[in-house]
Amino acid sequence: xxxxxxxLRRLGKHGGLIALAILLLFNILITPNFLQLQTLSVNIxxxxxxxxxxxxxxxxxxxxxxxxxxxxxMALSGALAPLIFGSQFGTDYPTLGLMAALCVPMIIAMLxxxxxxxxxxxIGVQPIIATLILFISGRGIxxxxxxxxxxxxxxxxxxxxxxxxxxxxxxxGWLALVIAIILSLVISRTTFGRYLxxxxxxxxAASLSGGPVHKVKIGAYIVCSAxxxxxxxxxxxxxxxxxxxxxxxxxxxxxIAAAVVGGAxxxxxxxxxxxxxxxxVIIQLVKYTLLANGIEDEYALIAKAFIILAAxxxxxxxxxxxx
Amino acid sequence: MLDAGSFDLRLYVSRxxxxxxxxxxxxxxxxxxxxxxxxxxxxxxxxxxxNYNAMFIIISVGxxxxxxxxxxxxxxxxxAAFTxxxxxxxxxxxxxxxxxxxxxxxxxFGLFNASxxxxxxxxxxxxxxxxxxxxxxxxxxxxxxxxxxxxxxSNFTKLGMEKAFSVFPWTIVVVAAVAFLLWLILEKTxxxxxxxxxxxxxxxxxxxxxxxxxxxxFAYALSGGCAGLAGVFLASGFGAGQPLxxxxxxxxxxxxxxxxxxxxxGGMGSIPATIAGALLLGLVFNILNFENGKGVISISAYWQMxxxxxxxxAVILFQARVMKTKQQ
Lengths: 323, 328
Hints:
A: two-stranded antiparallel ribbon, 4 strands, 78% helix, B: mainly alpha, two-stranded antiparallel ribbon, 14 helices, globular
């Protein structure tokens, strides 16, 4: 029995990849029309937003934090974009308007991240509570801005974010990939990255050795919110409509689940960026597998619950080894 | 407390400096409401306010125990949705069958959480996140993703809709009794003191030979049971089991506990202050509704969310300041 669990845990090291392989194999054998470009496109366009947010969440989790406000930030940035390119200024100067519709929401999102990070770092409030403030207020602000209305629009240039194709595959999938490469380089090659892991690994030690703990933490929250803001724009672009009530709803849970399935430890000190993408893909594939085989969504939720538990349990072997 | 004469305000304040904020804010809001609105202190407002907030209070009290052990329970909203469906299905057999069964279902979810946390060593945040997702799926499966109407012929809806001795809503009577019992357990029993000790320092508690695992099982089972009870209130008060309800309840409960001055790191906090925290968050809504009713300004539901968040921010800032002065 003991041996069984050890080898099971050893498996857990590659558990994510194995789970992915099993899911793919299962689908190829069972699901009709699985090996089609269309299927791939649909899955990529759905998984990209979760993956983008999950990567930011991974950075925050690496500092030992958590960010509940990502869904609200998505709603906020998604609400701002159509307001900007649909305004008088935006219609008079389409190019400038488009630029502003991309930049302003991102800047606002980063301000949200700064707000979260500052409360955590300077006031010392626990991350779950600090980010709860924007979780509650952020969506409210988005709805105040739009009067709670659904904003529909026709803007091909903006919609490219969510509907464009590069080499036949959705633009946002490539976007997620590029972000992943940049982030993993930042984590492995820059001082910010080293401090990020140090802060999560042992905050006191990082602080005593002169590390800029506060700045690193705030930086992680800013990146996380910026990515959430970007994901909000992508969702709006996919739908050619912005619904502040629904955009990013429950995204915090999906993002946390993806990050954790991908190997992030809630106590911090690890930032597996590609793991977050893997986690997002697994969660998406489970959902797709069940849906494509006519099993209702509610069973997908139950499956998701057990996947999260299994993934975390299997990964704990690693933590013991490193400790 | 049993001996009311021995209650020492100075002692309470020095022991619970972070709880001051909630009492100050509550008194201020109530005085503000009484002065500004005619019917604020009326029997109708008070009873409907208490009745509506009963489920949030009971969930917050359960959450308080979990947080005192240094854990967290994200599953309470989904569990309440699940048990509201169970209670609605069992409503023809009367409240005396439906209520215990729903509470037991809630307890079972709590025990599942505790097992994952204690035996498998899965962090509370993840274990209860999984249960949150799973219980929601379960609620949708057993209800067929529909609201389940209760049986109006039985005494089931009396709990949520009628008043004891035509004064207090039954829900509040139940909540008061349960909360008092839990307060006694926390303050006066070994089990309760162990819950506090675990949150204060788990390793130290283990070395002292305290029954740490038992305290954790107790806290999570209790939180699940309280969520189960809230599900009964939900079904009984609104006449239907609602599988889609409960979204965000866990965060409201956590906010109530924290606003009440309980530290998220555990080991310190109180039941009365938690109840005050839950009431305070409800009071903000109540006052905003009255303000809208005056017709001078109209604050949309969206602004109410913004104001709620800002209010939470203000209380947290105040707490942080009080804690800082206390430490110096």
